[in-house]
Amino acid sequence: ASIMYDYPFGNSPISFAWGYGFSSFNIHHNGEFDRDSLNNGFVIFQAYSPGYSYKKNKLSANYLEVPIEFRVRTKGKNNFKLYLGAKAGYLVNIHTKVVDDDGKRKYYQVPETSRLRYGATVRLGMNQVALFGCYSFTPFLKENKGVELIPITLGLSFFLI
Predict the structure, then answer these.
(1) Which of 56, 75, 62, 61 minimizes the C-alpha distance to 14?
(2) List of residues 6+ apart from 150 with CB closer than 8 A
(3) Which of 22, 51, 108, 135 is the most exposed place for a label (fewest CB within 10 A)?
């Protein structure tokens, strides 16, 4: 979710926008973070054994963000929108959650996670709905602290106005 402030360039269909936002990522997976003691605490993803049964296993990461966009949109009954931009964010909360036969457990310590992130964004749509994409230029885990995971986000964007 984000609130954007639009600054049109006169009567042209081009504008610039900036704002602030909040994003939450939930990554569902079939394993756990494990620190390899032989490799200086390098984080690996260890799959659960085939006999282990769980109901939920996820990692949640929440970011405060500052997005900027250059916008092109047509006017009329069916207005086309193309927004190219970037966003930077700061990790404000991260935790893992497991629900299995032993109950529910949350862990709030994932110190290997990069606190800052930034990436390129694009939105392409008509009227009040658009396809959204974001490619992160920063890996999810800190350098030399784990496997290189580059977040890519795809989804739908809805406009209130």
Answers:
(1) 75
(2) 135, 136, 139, 140
(3) 51
- Could you say which DSSP state residue 39 is in? G
Per-residue confidence at 28, pLDDT binned at 50, 70, 90? confident
The pTM of this model reads: 0.84
| Residue for token pair 């966003």 | 87
DSSP 48: P
Buried b (16+ CB within 10 A) or exposed e, 104-131: eeeeeebebbbeebebebebebeeeebe
Query: % helix / strand / coil in the chain, to the nearest 5?
Result: 0, 70, 30
